[in-house]
Design a protein that fits this description.
Helices cover about 40% and strands about 20% of the residues. The chain is an alpha/beta fold. The protein has 2 domains: about 170 residues, 2-Layer Sandwich (VC0802-like), CATH 3.30.2130; about 210 residues, HUPs (Rossmann fold). Strands 1, 2, 3, 4, 5, 6, 7, 8 and 9 form a 9-stranded mixed sheet that branches. The two termini are about 20 Å apart. About 40% of the residues are buried.
C-alpha cells in the first residue's frame, strides 16, 4: 500500500492572487530542507504530496515540522479513485493502525474534490461508514467526539485515506515577505523575536555587536550557536559581526552614565540603518519588550528610534518574560541564551539608567565626540559568517 506525506497549506489559501507565489516558495523551501533524502514532491493549489523512502520517514517528519507555511501534515494512504479501492484501503488502514479488539468509536469525513465521482461527500460518509460497521463490529459511530477520525480525500487521479493529522508551524514560507536584519544578542529575547519574524515569511540576516575585549570570544560562539538554531527554521543566513569596541568606549568616556545605554542604542540603530541599505533589507528586527529594561520604556523607544527612518519590527514587544521563555525553550535557544557570557548591551550597564530620556539632551551628549567617523570605521571592518542549519540535530519522534 503506497503512502505519501500530505501537506496542507492553511493560511496560504487566503492569499488569492499571490497564492501561487506562496505555494511555489513553500515547495522550494521543502525541497531544500529535504535535499538529502530520496523524495518526490508534487503540488497543486490546495495540497502538496511527498513520496518518500519508508526508512527515512521519522527524520523527514521532523524536518517538515520545522518548515513555516505548513498548516498541518500527515501520512496518507494512496489508492485509486473508485469505491471498491477506497473500501479496501480503509480496511488496510484500520487493520494496521488501531486496536480492533478494543471497543472504540469512529467518524468518517469525506472531501470530494473530483465532482465526477458518482456519489457526493455526505453519501460517501454513509457508504464508507457502513462498510466499516460491517467489517469492524467493535467500532461504533460517534459524530461528536470520535476516537478515530477517518479522513477520505477523493481526487481525480488518486484518493487518500488517513487517520491522524499533525499540526505544522503555520505562518508564511520563508522569503515571501522580503528580507530583514535581526539584532541578535546573546540573550533570551532576540532569538525568539527572530523566530517569530521568520514565521511571518521574513528572510533574515543577523547582526551581532561585539566589543572585544569587554566581551569574549565565548560570547561570539554563543551567538553563533543561537544563529544555527534560527537557521533550522529560516535556512542559510549571514551573521554580520560589528566591531563595536571603539564606539562603545567613546560613549562611556563622553556620556553621562545614566544616559550611556540610550546613546549606545541610538548608535546601534544608526549602524543598523546603514547595514540594511548595504545588505538590501527592508526592516530592522529586534527583541525589545515594552518595559523590560530601561531602554525599552515607550519614552526610551521613541528617543532611540529618532535616529532612523527604517521600519523596526519588535515581535515580542507585548509578550511577558515567561511567554518569551516558553517559546525559547520550544525552539531550543533557552539553554544557550542563559550561558554566562555577556554581550555589549549588558557589560557596561549603569547602576541607574535613564528610563525617560530627553531627546535634546541625547543630541547634546552625542555632539561631544565624532561618532560618525567611528561608525565609518566600523562599517569598513565588518566580519560576515555564513550560518547553516545546526548539523548535530537529534531527530526525536515528533508524533
Amino acid at each position: 500500500m503506497d503512502r505519501v506525506i500530505l501537506i496542507k497549506y492553511g493560511e496560504l489559501t487566503t492569499k488569492k492572487g499571490n497564492r501561487k507565489l506562496f505555494i511555489k516558495t513553500l515547495y522550494f523551501n521543502i525541497l531544500k530542507k529535504l535535499k538529502d533524502f530520496d523524495v518526490n514532491i508534487f503540488k497543486d493549489m490546495s495540497r502538496m504530496y511527498i513520496e518518500f523512502n519508508s526508512e527515512d520517514l521519522d527524520i523527514i517528519l521532523k524536518k517538515i515540522g520545522e518548515i513555516f507555511g505548513i498548516h498541518s501534515f500527515l501520512i496518507a494512504y494512496k489508492t485509486n479513485s473508485d469505491i471498491s479501492s477506497i473500501k479496501n484501503t480503509i480496511k488496510e488502514v484500520l487493520s494496521s493502525n488501531i486496536d480492533l479488539e478494543d471497543l472504540s468509536t469512529f467518524k468518517v469525513e469525506t472531501k470530494r474534490s473530483d465532482k465526477n465521482f458518482p456519489i457526493d461527500s455526505l453519501k460517501c460518509n454513509h457508504v464508507f461508514g457502513g462498510y466499516i460497521l460491517e467489517n469492524f463490529p467493535n467500532l461504533k459511530v460517534d459524530v461528536h467526539k470520535p476516537k478515530n477520525l477517518i479522513h477520505i480525500e477523493i481526487r481525480k487521479d488518486y484518493s487518500y485515506v488517513y487517520l491522524n493529522e499533525y499540526k505544522g508551524l503555520g505562518g508564511y514560507p520563508v522569503g515571501t515577505l522580503g528580507k530583514g536584519m535581526l539584532m541578535l544578542s546573546g540573550g533570551i529575547d532576540s532569538p525568539v523575536a527572530g523566530y517569530l519574524a521568520i514565521k511571518r515569511g521574513i528572510k533574515l540576516d543577523l547582526v551581532y555587536f561585539e566589543a572585544i575585549p569587554h566581551t569574549s570570544l565565548e560570547a561570539r560562539e554563543k551567538v553563533i550557536r543561537l544563529a544555527k538554531k534560527l537557521a533550522i527554521y529560516g535556512g542559510k543566513m549571514r551573521l554580520i559581526i560589528v566591531p563595536f569596541t571603539k564606539l562603545q568606549e567613546a560613549i562611556y568616556k563622553n556620556v553621562d552614565g545614566n544616559y550611556s545605554i540610550t546613546i549606545m542604542r541610538r548608535m546601534m540603530y544608526r549602524i543598523m540603518e546603514k547595514l540594511t541599505l548595504r545588505f538590501k533589507s527592508l526592516v530592522i528586527v529586534n527583541g525589545e519588550s515594552i518595559g523590560q529594561v530601561a531602554s525599552q520604556t515607550l519614552t526610551s523607544m521613541r528617543v532611540i528610534n529618532n535616529v532612523t527612518n527604517m521600519p523596526i519590527i519588535r515581535p515580542v514587544a507585548c509578550f511577558d518574560k515567561l511567554e518569551i521563555i516558553d517559546i525559547s525553550k520550544k525552539i531550543g535557544t533557552y539553554d544557550i541564551s542563559i550561558l554566562p557570557y555577556e554581550d555589549c548591551c549588558t557589560v557596561f550597564v549603569p547602576r541607574h539608567p535613564i528610563i525617560n530620556p530627553n531627546l535634546k539632551h541625547c543630541e547634546e551628549l552625542e555632539s561631544k565626540f565624532a561618532y560618525e567617523n567611528l561608525i565609518e570605521e566600523i562599517l569598513a571592518n565588518l566580519k560576515v559568517i555564513t550560518i547553516n542549519e545546526e548539523v548535530e540535530n537529534k531527530y526525536e519522534d515528533i508524533l
